Amino acid sequence: MSQGQKTWAFISIFLCFVSFGLICTSIGTSEWFQTTQNTTNYTVVTDIGLWKICVSEIKQDGWTRKICTYRDLTESRDKTSSGFLQLRLDQCFVIFICLCAFIQLLTHLILLWSLPGCCKSMKKTHLFFIVSVTQLLAVLVGIIGCISFIALQDEIHKSDSSQQYTYQWSFILAWISIALCLLESGIFVVLVKVCFDNVFQSGKFNYYSM
């Protein structure tokens, strides 16, 4: 590979680690969605995350009480059709976001294992193609997870106009991670094409060297 191709490969690998760090941060924090309800004596702020829901009561004198509870993803308290729909959307959200992180981790393991020690047993064209496919798969499942979360919040709050709603920074980090995965997939596809072009031009069909 030329120096330029090595540079792009390094940039792609770096972006892989950045995107994985972002999705792990979003999974581990409880700042996906926030609702705010103002009353006469205090303000109730609810922060919703992947695993927990934190409710803060902020009184006018500045005193704050915060209670966090883990989300129940196995049973719906509301036995209506709307309640079961919310449970399924909640489960879909958690499963697909975690699956997105797992696929990114799998991509890192493939890169770390294959690039240094397996160059003589796997063509880099095949390696780059596999990585581009796994990153694209991470994009798809990540989008499904985020859209499920949006649909969940719309379903929960569709008839409640007394609260203010905002998507928080954990939700934004998840989307940034997904966007980086899409960018990485595109870069690896370009590297696959470049490697194939070099192979056919040189006639070296055992293309193992960096």
Automatic annotation (TrEMBL):
- Does Membrane count among this protein's keywords? yes
Query: In its keyword annotation, does this UniProt entry include Membrane?
Result: yes
Q: Keyword set for this entry?
A: Membrane, Transmembrane, Transmembrane helix
Residue ranges of the TM segments: 7-28, 93-115, 127-152, 172-196
Localization recorded for this chain is: Membrane
GO CC terms for this protein?
plasma membrane
Q: What is this protein called?
A: Uncharacterized protein
Q: How does it sit in the membrane?
A: Multi-pass membrane protein
